[in-house]
Design a protein that fits this description.
- By secondary structure, the chain is an all-alpha fold.
- It has two domains: about 70 residues, no CATH class; about 350 residues, no CATH class.
- It is built from 17 helices and no strands.
- The longest helix has 29 residues.
- The radius of gyration is 21 Å and the shape is globular.
């Protein structure tokens, strides 16, 4: 039996059994499934079909048995549940299309785990362990892709990933714009020298992986992260100068010409010009078409995950063109078009409150004990991660992927840990 299949079975069964002693271990096992998608790279050889659903069900069951609830009594959690319900309504709006139903099942798992995180991640030790799960299950795999792809000189070498959404270079870029800040801040928080070196290696590999995606979304995400670092620096003038010089040297001497050519197409959106980049021009058409969808179905949306299918039925008011099968290429417009304006307002509200909570955590934890400083450190880390997510997601339909919702759950968990004075 291939090694991947064996490892997947060992992690799943050991995690499932351990969950009956402590549900948190089951949560870590499910994180393996959630972030690596092993079912997509085990060639259909897994002897138990739907093993991820079994592991997920064990996590839910053991959480209820051990904690008597599956989410904490936090207002943001109730907002998340209402958003999930509006997405369910949008499944019916979609006419129960197979794609909509399948994607909604996936999104339901995402939301369930995000809620469960707020219950099971209840101290700093478990918080660190979950961060390490993200680093190992996403960062390590992406680092391997980035380093191997760089050595082979492969364009888009990082898109191999480990399966699932990580196979798409745009999704890969969004995920890495979240994971890179997490790894960076974990290096600062880690006390063990060898762990620091290990994290530094993963960080370099992830940056290489992001470059190899050749995704403009990733470039925007990294730029936003860099601007945040400069804005929060105590020595802003020096930080700006160092940032500009470092970026100029890196861009001029280390980035592949193909990558620079790709990034330069961000502004080539005028379809009437000869030097237009068609993907960039189509992106604007998709955005305007999405706005037409919102005008047509402002309350319920056109249907959960139905925007690509419905593109041929709507026309861009500027070019009078319709492009069948194209993605909207924008997370905010995706939510508005597919689920409706009420859901969009709720979506924006959820993550606005999450970001504000991180600021409040930092204010509360400023100074004091080493535990307070560590929590302050993690709150800053998540602020940067969310900036990376939304900046890169401006070019990608990423509203329903795992990482942003799980980070929302972790933020609520961190707030509760801070409230205990951990």
């Amino acid at each position: 039996m291939p090694l991947r299949v064996v490892l997947t079975l060992i992690i799943s069964f050991m995690g499932g059994i351990a969950a009956f002693f402590n549900a948190f271990y089951g949560l870590i096992a499910y994180a393996f499934w959630s972030y690596t998608y092993p079912e997509n790279v085990t060639w259909g050889l897994l002897p138990i079909e739907g093993l991820s659903y079994i592991v997920g069900a064990i996590v839910v069951l053991t959480t209820i048995l051990q904690r008597k609830r599956i989410f904490s009594n936090n207002p943001t959690n109730y907002m998340i549940i209402v958003f999930w319900f509006l997405c369910l309504v949008a499944v019916f709006t979609a006419g129960m299309e197979t794609e909509a139903v399948w994607k909604f099942k996936f999104f339901t798992r995402v939301i369930l785990i995000a809620l469960i995180i707020t219950v099971l991640v209840d101290d700093l030790k478990r918080f660190r362990h979950y961060l390490w799960a993200i680093v190992i299950f996403i960062g390590l795999i992406a680092a391997r892709s980035g380093i191997v792809g760089t050595l082979k000189g492969e364009v888009g070498g990082a898109t191999g990933g480990f399966g699932g959404v990580i196979d798409d270079r745009n999704f890969m870029a969004v995920i890495l714009c979240v994971v890179i800040p997490i790894i960076f801040y974990m290096i600062g928080a880690e006390r063990n020298k060898w762990s620091k070196l290990f994290l530094m290696g993963i960080l370099i590999g992830n940056v290489l992986a992001l470059i190899l995606t050749y995704a403009r979304a990733g470039f925007l995400g990294l730029a936003a992260i860099g601007i945040f670092f400069i804005a929060k620096s105590r020595h802003k003038v020096a930080a700006v100068l160092v940032g500009i010089i470092a970026a100029a040297i890196f861009f001029a001497y280390f980035l592949p010409k193909e990558y620079k050519d790709r990034i330069s197409t961000i502004t080539k959106t005028d379809i009437e010009k000869e030097d237009v980049d068609m993907s960039a021009a189509q992106r604007l058409i998709a955005w305007r078409t999405a706005i037409e969808m919102i005008k047509d179905k402002p309350i319920t949306g056109i249907g959960f995950y139905c925007s690509e299918k419905m593109m041929e039925k709507y026309t861009d008011p500027v070019t009078n063109m319709s492009i069948p099968g194209i993605s909207i290429h924008n997370t905010i417009l995706q939510v508005g078009a597919e689920v409706g304006l009420p859901a969009l307002l709720l979506y924006i509200g959820i993550f606005f409150l999450i970001y504000r909570r991180l600021g409040k955590i930092k204010s509360k934890m400023a100074g004091g004990t080493s535990g307070n400083k560590e929590i302050w450190h993690y709150a800053t880390m998540f602020q940067v991660a969310f900036i990376g997510f939304f900046a890169s997601a401006f070019f990608v339909n990423a509203a329903f992927i795992d990482i942003s919702w799980h980070l929302a759950g972790l933020t609520i968990a961190l707030e509760q840990i801070a409230g205990k004075g951990s």
